[in-house]
Design a protein that fits this description.
- By secondary structure, the protein is an alpha+beta fold.
- It has 2 domains: about 160 residues, no CATH class; about 180 residues, Zn-dependent exopeptidases (Aminopeptidase, 3-Layer(aba) Sandwich).
- About 35% of the residues lie in helices and about 25% in strands.
- The protein has 11 helices and 17 strands.
- Strand 3 and strand 4 form a beta hairpin.
- The radius of gyration is 24 Å and the shape is elongated.
- The two termini are about 30 Å apart.
- The N terminus is likely disordered.
- Bound molecules: zinc ion.
Length: about 350
């Protein structure tokens, strides 16, 4: 790290400890405040001497520091709060953060307002849940975060996932919850797609080169918009949705087919790779690629998208196969291989 960077960081942390913008105004009616609307008042409360420094900084550095400051949220804590008293849960699909503090009373927050200058927050809401004081935060995008306790404050830094991971994809298990998709003899599409994605997760978990965000890993049913926005907001390299096909008229059709966005060549290439790799992994008939332009998650995707129809529940042979663990695992292997091949075609490879 260069000296200049060290100095910048020192100044940044000094300023941070003094920046105290009241962004949460406790009211008797309920604490609900739009933080981003107040983020522009940042400078007002900086300590006088540091503010002077801040003022005389070269504009470029000042902008840099201001940007840095906007990544932080600071929440005052009662004395002696330990890290183990605090639980933070993030939902990437909902873009929310839930902070729970054990054995704390929400009234503490009324007299000790949350401070910070964070510009990644759309809304923030306090409530009491039994013995826990809770904060729900609606973020404006998908973030990773770092947290620590400093001077009785919970300091949360929001981090752009691309600052953490070089290669990001989004994997979507089709359907879920009250929308089971196609079905046959009580076998539901939503369950098979989830199993395949879970097996794929085992493979990706062992691969530190690729970070995968999942639209669901349970029986939830995110909206189409939530699914595609996860990929868009993450600026994912690839967005792959997993489905199972069915033909109402005939038991005949079988094989693997992939839908793509016709106005995006990268989507087309990606879909072709998925069709080739998946049919190879499954030894299924390769039905090739076809337009998916009318499908919401396809025409709203800003990143290369493919929707893979692994096989047909309506086909007797494939119905039997799709119900087996081994076939689902092969499908997962095909998906994993498709992602590796897609990166390889982009000129990105990894050595063992
Ligand atoms: Zn489907």
């Amino acid at each position: 790290m260069k000296d200049e960077q060290v100095r910048m960081l020192t100044i940044a942390s000094s300023v941070l400890s003094l920046v105290a913008i009241i962004i949460f105004l406790a009211s008797s009616k309920g604490e609900f405040v739009n933080i981003s609307a107040q983020a522009s008042t940042t400078n007002t409360y900086v300590g006088a001497d540091l503010y002077e420094q801040f003022e005389t900084m070269a504009n470029e550095k000042r902008a840099e520091l201001e940007e840095e400051l906007k990544k932080y949220l600071r929440i005052k804590l009662p004395e002696n709060t330990k890290e183990s008293d605090i639980d933070i849960q993030v939902s990437y699909i909902k873009q929310t953060m839930n902070i729970r503090m054990k054995n704390k009373d929400r009234s503490f927050m009324k007299t000790n307002p949350t401070v910070g200058s964070c510009n990644h927050i759309a809304d923030l809401n306090y409530y009491q849940d039994k013995q826990e004081a809770c904060i729900d935060i609606q973020l404006d995008s998908v973030y990773e975060y770092e947290s620590s306790i400093q001077d009785n404050q919970l300091v949360i830094k929001f981090v752009d996932p691309h600052d953490m991971y070089d290669h990001i994809i989004v994997l979507d298990a089709g359907h879920g919850g009250g929308h089971p998709g196609t079905n046959r003899n009580n076998v539901l599409e939503k369950d098979i797609t989830l199993h395949i994605v879970e097996y794929a997760k085992e493979l990706f978990d062992d691969d530190e080169n690729i970070k995968v965000y999942y639209t669901r890993l349970d029986d939830s049913n995110p909206t189409f918009d939530e699914r595609v926005q996860l990929a868009n907001k993450l600026k994912a390299d690839y967005f792959l949705s997993v489905h199972i096909n069915s033909n109402e008229q005939s038991r005949e059709p079988s094989g693997t087919e992939v839908l793509y966005y016709t106005s995006d060549n990268r989507s087309k290439n990606f879909a072709q790779i998925c069709a080739d790799e998946e049919s190879k992994a499954l030894n299924s008939r390769n039905r090739g690629i076809t337009t998916g332009d009318t499908i919401y998650i396809i025409h709203n995707s800003k990143v290369p998208v493919a929707l893979i129809e692994v096989g047909f529940l309506s086909n007797n042979n494939e119905f039997g196969l799709l119900c087996t663990k081994s076939y689902q695992k092969k499908a997962a292997q095909g998906i994993y291989q498709a992602i590796l091949s897609a990166y390889e075609e982009d000129g990105i490879t990894w050595k063992e």
